[in-house]
Amino acid sequence: MTTSHGSPVDPEARTETMRAVGPETPHAHQAPPPAQAPPQAARRRPAEQEPVEEPATRNGMGTPALVLGLLAAATCWTGWAGVVLGLPAVVAGYLGARRAFHDLATDGAASLGGLVTGLVGLIAGAIIVWPTLFGSGGFGDGLTLDQCMAQSTSAREMHMCKSQHLAEFNERYPNAAE
Known about the structure:
By secondary structure, the chain is mostly helical. Helix content is 57%, strand content 0%. It is built from 8 helices and no strands. Helix 3 runs antiparallel to helix 4.
């Protein structure tokens, strides 16, 4: 496409000119639209002119996670200590490792170490506490009535044997007073 005086017309330049001038309006009382800079001017601007603020590095989860994780792993044989110390170690280790993965922290190794040792303490403590929470693991578990009665040393333990093996006890001693 060419203009009336023979020079080629750039459709992009014409569009930019129309944007800068704005639509022609017959209303005289309206203020003219503000002049807009062509979009190419924004593209030509070097990136150094606008400083980009980098996110702040926030350390602080690695050390607590590692300390709690080591304590959880060391005391997990007691049961509750492993669970109570392992849970916050896992949470702090996960959060710290996530920050380090996204380059927002530099203590990723300590966070990951706390996560792993806290998880070990949490799992081992939970395995030890599990029977206590769900009622298995009492006196006489896994024994027959005879074995349980042979191991009992008090009337209370004999009663526990009787209650655990009630069906067998009632079959063997139908006339026993309860």
